[in-house]
Structure formats: C-alpha cells, structure tokens
C-alpha cells in the first residue's frame, strides 16, 4: 500500500490527480482518487524492470507517447521518484510504472 501511495503522490504533485485517500491501510484497504481529467493511461508494472540512470531517457521515449507529457515512476535508493528527479540525482533501480 505504501508504494501505491508514493506513486499517487507523484501523480498528485505533477497535477494528474486532485487528491487521494487511503481507507483501512492495515488490511486489504482501498483507495479513493479524485481525478483531474488528465490521465489517459496509467500502468503499474507487475514485473519490476531494472533500469540504470543512463537508460532512463531511452525507456521514457519508448513508453510515453510524447516528450511533452507523462512520467515514468522509479523506485531508487533515494525513494520513489519520477524520471526527471531520478535523472537529476543520477540514480536508477526499478521501474514501478508510468502515466500520461
């Protein structure tokens, strides 16, 4: 549930959703999301694909439809980051998913 919350925080920070609320996080739980109307596609990868910092830009180009919008979310040693922050910090590890 924590990884999903980090993913949704990035979506909120980037303006793709208004807000979200986690109900009963200690059990199965559910999440209520207030959509902004900007999300065309949101994918979480069930297999965590390893990625190096130098390959993030290439991966982003393959998965996102344009350079102008969308984000790849990556789990790094510095926490869960979007691709821009991961490139800026020069870290990589596992791709969690992407949205646009």
UniProtKB/TrEMBL annotation:
A Pfam family hit: Ribosomal_S8
One GO CC term on file: ribonucleoprotein complex
State the source organism's domain of life.
Answer: Eukaryota
Question: Which controlled-vocabulary keywords does the entry list?
Answer: Ribonucleoprotein, Ribosomal protein
GO molecular function annotation:
structural constituent of ribosome
Q: What's an example Gene Ontology biological process for this entry? A: translation
Q: Which family does it belong to?
A: Belongs to the universal ribosomal protein uS8 family.
**Protein name, please?**
40S ribosomal protein S15a
Q: Which organism is it from?
A: Gossypium darwinii
Classification of source organism = Eukaryota, Viridiplantae, Streptophyta, Embryophyta, Tracheophyta
